[in-house]
Each structure stands twice: as C-alpha cells, then as structure tokens.
Design brief:
Radius of gyration: 16 Å
Number of strands: 10
Number of helices: 3
Strand order of the largest sheet: 4-1-6-7-10
Number of domains: 1
Low-confidence stretches: 1-19, 117-121
Mean pLDDT: 81
Distance between the termini: 50 Å
Largest sheet: 5 strands, antiparallel
Length: 121
Amino acid sequence: MIVILALFFMGFSHPAFAAERGIGVIINIKGPVFIEREKASIPAKMSEQLFEKDIIVTGESGSMGAVLIDNSVTSSGPNTRLILSQFVFDPAEKKTSSTVQIMRGTLTYLLGLIQNMTARL
C-alpha cells in the first residue's frame, strides 16, 4: 500500500505536472473532439483539464464546451481548430491576459472575471 501511494505522489511531482497549471476544464463534448498537446493528439474527455498552448480540434459533427479558471465559458462548434495560446489569471497579483486563436470554425466565448479585472486595472 505504501509503495502504491509513493508511486502515486511521485507521478504528480513529475515536472510535466508541476510546470503547468490547468486553465480550464471540459464540461461538454459531442462527437469527435481532440486535444493536440505536446505534439500528441488525444481524444478529449469530460472533466479533462485544459492547458495553455492546447489546440482543440472538433470533427465534422463535433462540439465542445469548457469553463476556464476565471469562469469564462467557451463553446466550439463543428470543424473548429482553436489554439489556447495564452491565459493568465492571477487576481492576487492583478495579472490578467488571454489570447485565443480561431484557425477555423466557430467559437462562442462568454467572458468571466478576467473582463471585470481588466476593466479595473
């Protein structure tokens, strides 16, 4: 049991987990949706974390919804290629910034707290 717990915690201390903090989570998937991350394409799953530089690709009948850490909500339609280029949300340091690139397809983006903080800065 101790060995299993040690291996479990060692996995989360790996630099790949420690270096990046998730910027959001998938809340809705319909049809084929993939995430391109670090030169790999993986099928998207419900509740999966999203990270800066992730590329979301929806198929012909695919769509995906996500909530970002500032409570922004995104919805990608069919045949969409979306790059989550940059996302900074640090209320304590008053740092906010986001860059999302839509290479093709459709995107609905409802701004969350990042909008309110940026207006006050």
